[in-house]
């Protein structure tokens, strides 16, 4: 009889233990940060899909402002140096000098008291305007004048003509001056008393707006102011008056 096949029960086998969780992929030479993110991955944003860019705050731009101030000061200093050098060159080349004036003669055409006790005066003055410059011409502009004063009181005044004066030129000017003064009786008494001494102090003031010509260039207008202290022997009308002393000073006003 054939042997009966025996069926042996299979022994239960135990399931293999679960494998430990795998660590995240790390590149060689990398280390783990506090948030379990590899440092190498932090250095390479492309390894993390949703990495946020790092935004640095803007730096203050104080350097640009300081540079602008420095450049402005440098340009101003250079401009001042250039202006000073130009003025120095002009002075050395042209050697400018002030025009001067001298009183040739003084004549009193009329000096009297009016019925309203005002003093009327009419003087005729002949002066010489001298331009001592070799390379500078002078334009006498409109608005110039002469005036005669006694004891801080203006007796009369007149206008200077407009003309051009060339290099090293002397021009004789005849100027008629007229004026009327209040409180004439007091002033006339003082003049007559001074006349008895033979020395009457008068002051001639010059106001001349002029423009300087350098070559073909006409510069801006300036004012020449002059004061001449005169001493006359008398104030007799229609008689020649002798000027015993004369002292003139001049200056320029921009």
Structure write-up:
With 254 residues, this protein is an alpha+beta fold. It has helices at 39-43, 62-94, 184-195, and strands at residues 100-113, 119-131, 136-140, 145-150, 153-159, 163-165, 169-181, 200-214, 217-232, 240-241, 243-253. Strand 1 and strand 2 form a beta hairpin. The protein is elongated, with a radius of gyration of 52 Å. The model is unreliable at 30-37 (pLDDT under 50).
Strand content: 35-45%
- Summarize model confidence as the mean pLDDT: 81
Assembly type: single chain
- Largest sheet, described in full? 7 strands, antiparallel
User: What is the molecular shape?
Assistant: elongated
Radius of gyration: 52 Å
**How far is the first residue's CA from the last residue's CA?**
154 Å
Amount of helix: 10-25%
According to DSSP, the number of beta strands is 11
Q: What is the helix/strand order?
A: HHEEEEEEEHEEEE
> Pairing-aware structural class of the strands and helices?
alpha+beta
- Unreliable stretches: 30-37
How many alpha or pi helices? Answer: 3
How is the secondary structure organized here?
Layout: H1 39-43, H2 62-94, E1 100-113, E2 119-131, E3 136-140, E4 145-150, E5 153-159, E6 163-165, E7 169-181, H3 184-195, E8 200-214, E9 217-232, E10 240-241, E11 243-253
Antiparallel strand pairs: 1-2, 1-10, 2-7, 3-6, 3-8, 4-5, 4-8, 8-9, 9-11
Brief characterization of the structure:
This protein is of the alpha+beta class.
